[in-house]
């Protein structure tokens, strides 16, 4: 007896969920990212308004002055949904772990000059608290912004910032042989050292910002546009000038993350600016205000360089170039 098992192909009746098909059409299969983003947030039939802000609905477009015809235009070009985000960060972390193992296995910490090591503790350790602040600000954006596209990406950003704080902690502990007093000293510098008080004030002032897009511009575009290029990129270069390359290896993860993240941030700013002249004028005024804050704030912090003003001007120039590509001329 011979048995032949034949396979048949069953044509699906539809290629995606109904609410996604309304945007893409019935015949176009949606990507995982599109299915996870489009119109996933409720828009009607809320039972009650939030008791802490009864003037708004739970999800309300009016929490920001920025106006969008469709908040789902603010898609993430990285197309991060849960699975793609987690798998990307896991592979990056595995590569990062290799750098730490290399430094530890070869005992490279023992070859770092004491002066360079002190600079790392002085200028890198307090940044843990800047990252905690960035984590809180992005969670505040998640709480108040409208649309799954922005909410989801900002939640990933918030988790990344917590990871950055932990990453800096790991670097410091590796360099000081797990002496936790170095972390306490970094916290004390964040709270009391005059050099850090400008940045600390800027971060703490941002905690009371209610407009989620205003906070997005302040934290993710302008604050990070100065802090990470100067305190990570330029600081690593300064270490390299002093014949110290280990710090560059250990901070490469942050540099790569920043280069990836600005693609999303610039895309969001570009779409919002192109939506209307009113949006563009509002964004421009916010950005100018925040740039002025950071120019004044960073001068005391870039004291690791002999030319702090030149470095700050370069960071500002790079940010202005990014904004110009987004359609915002300062």
Keywords:
330 residues, mainly alpha, 0% strand, monooxygenase
Task: Give your account of this protein's structure.
This is Phenol hydroxylase, oxygenase component P1. With 330 residues, the chain is mainly α. 66% of the residues lie in helices and 0% in strands. The longest helix has 30 residues, at 212-241. It is globular and about 75 Å long. The model has no long low-confidence stretch (mean pLDDT 93).
Provide a quick synopsis of the model.
The chain has 330 residues and is mainly alpha-helical. It is 66% helix and 0% strand. It starts with 17 loop residues before the first helix and ends in a 5-residue tail after the last helix.
SSE blueprint:
Elements lengths: L17 H7 L7 H6 L44 H24 L8 H11 L2 H18 L3 H28 L5 H12 L1 H13 L5 H30 L4 H30 L1 H22 L9 H18 L5
Helix pairs in contact: 3-10, 5-6, 5-8, 5-9, 6-10, 7-8, 8-11, 9-10, 9-11, 9-12, 10-11
Helix/strand order, N-terminal first: HHHHHHHHHHHH
| Oligomeric state of the chains in view | single chain
Spans of 5+ residues with little confidence (pLDDT < 50)? Answer: none
Total strands: the figure is: 0
Organism: Arcobacter aquimarinus
Keywords: Monooxygenase, Oxidoreductase
InterPro entries: Ferritin-like_SF, MP_mOase_hydro, Phenol_Hydrox, RNR-like
Pfam family, one: Phenol_Hydrox
């Amino acid at each position: 007896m011979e048995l032949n098992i034949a396979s048949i192909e069953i044509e699906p009746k539809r290629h995606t969920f109904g609410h996604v098909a309304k945007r893409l059409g019935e015949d176009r299969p949606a990507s995982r990212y599109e299915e996870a983003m489009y119109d996933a947030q409720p828009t009607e039939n809320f039972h009650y308004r939030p008791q802490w802000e009864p003037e708004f609905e739970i999800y309300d477009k009016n929490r920001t002055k920025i106006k969008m015809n469709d908040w789902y235009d603010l898609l993430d070009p990285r197309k991060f949904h849960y699975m793609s985000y987690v798998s990307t960060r896991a592979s990056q972390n595995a590569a990062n772990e290799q750098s730490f193992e290399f430094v530890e296995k070869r005992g490279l910490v023992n070859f770092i000059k004491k002066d360079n090591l002190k600079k790392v503790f002085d200028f890198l350790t307090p940044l843990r608290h800047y990252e905690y602040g960035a984590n809180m600000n992005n969670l505040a954006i998640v709480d108040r912004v409208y649309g799954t596209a922005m909410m989801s990406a900002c939640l990933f950003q918030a988790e990344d910032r917590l990871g950055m704080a932990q990453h800096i902690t790991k670097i410091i502990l590796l360099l000081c042989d797990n002496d936790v007093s170095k972390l306490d000293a970094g916290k004390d510098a964040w709270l009391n050292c005059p050099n850090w008080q400008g940045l600390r004030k800027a971060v703490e002032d941002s905690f009371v910002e209610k407009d989620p897009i205003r906070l997005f511009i302040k934290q993710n575009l302008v604050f990070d546009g100065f802090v990470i290029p100067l305190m990570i990129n330029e600081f690593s270069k300064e270490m390299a000038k002093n014949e110290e390359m280990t710090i560059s290896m250990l901070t490469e993860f942050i540099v790569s993350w920043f280069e990836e993240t600005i693609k999303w941030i610039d895309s969001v700013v570009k779409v919002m600016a192109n939506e209307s002249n009113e949006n563009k004028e509002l964004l421009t005024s916010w950005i100018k205000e925040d740039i002025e804050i950071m120019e004044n704030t960073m001068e005391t912090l870039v004291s690791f360089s002999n030319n702090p003003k030149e470095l700050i001007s370069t960071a500002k120039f790079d940010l202005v170039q990014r904004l110009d590509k987004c359609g915002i001329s300062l």
